[in-house]
Amino acid sequence: MKRVVVGLSGGVDSSVTAYLLKEQGYDVIGLFMRNWNDASVTLEDECPWIEDSADALLVAKKLEIPFQVIDMSDSYKERIVDYMFNEYEQGRTPNPDVLCNREIKFDLFLKTALDLGADYVATGHYARKTSTIDENGKEVFQLLKGTDNNKDQSYFLCQLSQEQLSKALFPIGDIEKPEVRKIALEQDLVTANKKDSQGLCFIGKVSLPEFLQQQLKPKEGIIVEVAKDWKGYQREVPIFNNKYEALDFEAKGFSYTKTDGEVVGQHQGAHYFTRGQRKGLGVGGKVEPLFIIDTDVVENIIYAGQGADHSGLLKKALFIKEEEIHWVREDLTLKEDETMEVLARIRYRQPLQKAILHKAKSGMYVEFENQQSAITEGQFCAWYVNDELLGSGVING
């Protein structure tokens, strides 16, 4: 009998995951990961790990499977939280959920499971895994979108390796969310009607400014509004002989100085804000909502523009450094000067966009068919062919 350790989170998805695996004849063990101890930044009425672990225990008892709680809070702080602080300090916006899957669930948690004699680990992600055999007889694992397009979570798994995928199971990946809740109700699981968790992975819903202020001190600066008809947008786009130089220009977009607009307000730290953000600026009296089009953490200036269609928000290309390119399908890795037509997304839930990958010596350019709004440094771009996620990388420009 194959043994599988399920990451029981106290939610309905992992609960049904454990139930389905037991029904399929696996030897199932439930593990709850305690990854956060500080409730001081958690919003009121949001109970973090205590309630969740209690619900996970009740589910394990109902399913009659072994259960234990493991404390990974030190590693979580080091690998996820400290990384987040460092990224925000540099003016980048990290994605902790992607990192959590790569560093915690499918690394530390996986190693713990293997120590318990497990053959696999399973999570309640809405994603699918399959495999094919290559010309050398080697099994190649494929990460596919979840069947439920409204809940597809393959993007959050975009940094997994072949080794990690080989040990992973996603039992609800081919089930739609309403059916998952129906199964939980039929099995009388306490999590059947529980709301989906929100906020940071394993921390819950937090006040991000308060969370960041734990290490990043407030620093008063100015908000500069850049007009839609700013003269910089009237400059002709240079014609390059080198395709990569042109793509680099597209990826970097425009840079601003405080003389390129009007000072319209103040803020408490550019490192607390991100490109494309609308809320939190505290500037009113505008015809259209203000969006952040750029931040300068060195000069501590926020640049904003009116309207979601402001040219400062739009770019047609992005760049990923060589060392931050990751291929789930290592056998499809592009060589220098090779290209690939793909579907790509720059954030969770964004509809897939037509794009072309251009492999340069220094990294990878992703050139979109249509301009994209608020391409944000530090976030992940993931690329697909049909339903399969092939790779991803950290956006650098």
UniProtKB/TrEMBL annotation:
What Pfam families does the record point to? tRNA_Me_trans (PF03054), tRNA_Me_trans_C (PF20258), tRNA_Me_trans_M (PF20259)
Q: Where in the cell?
A: Cytoplasm
Q: What is its EC number?
A: 2.8.1.13
Molecular function terms, GO-annotated: ATP binding; tRNA binding; tRNA-uridine 2-sulfurtransferase activity
Record domain tRNA-specific 2-thiouridylase MnmA-like central: where: 256-305
EC main class here is transferase
Q: Which reaction does it catalyse?
A: S-sulfanyl-L-cysteinyl-[protein] + uridine(34) in tRNA + AH2 + ATP = 2-thiouridine(34) in tRNA + L-cysteinyl-[protein] + A + AMP + diphosphate + H(+)
Where's the active site on this chain?
Answer: C100 (nucleophile), C201 (cysteine persulfide intermediate)
What InterPro entries does the record tag this protein with?
MnmA-like, MnmA-like_C, MnmA-like_central, MnmA-like_central_sf, Rossmann-like_a/b/a_fold
Record's keyword annotation contains Translocase: no
Gene Ontology biological process: tRNA wobble position uridine thiolation
Q: Which residues lie within the region annotated Interaction with tRNA?
A: 151-153, 347-348
UniProt KW keywords? ATP-binding, Cytoplasm, Disulfide bond, Nucleotide-binding, RNA-binding, Transferase, tRNA processing, tRNA-binding
Tell whether Amino-acid biosynthesis is among the UniProt keywords: no
Q: Which residues are noted in the entry as ATP-binding?
A: G7, L8, S9, G10, G11, V12, D13, S14, M33, G124
Chain intervals for the UniProt region annotation (Interaction with target base in tRNA): 95-97
Of the GO CC terms on this record, one is:
cytoplasm
Q: List residue numbers at the site (Interaction with tRNA).
A: H125, Q379
Q: Indicate the segments forming the tRNA-specific 2-thiouridylase MnmA-like C-terminal domain, all copies.
A: 322-395
- Gene3D superfamilies assigned to the protein according to its UniProt record, in alphabetical order: Adenine nucleotide alpha hydrolases-like domains (2.30.30.280), HUPs (3.40.50.620), Translation factors (2.40.30.10)
What family is this protein classified in? Belongs to the MnmA/TRMU family.
Q: What is this protein called?
A: tRNA-specific 2-thiouridylase MnmA
Q: Which organism is it from?
A: Algoriella xinjiangensis
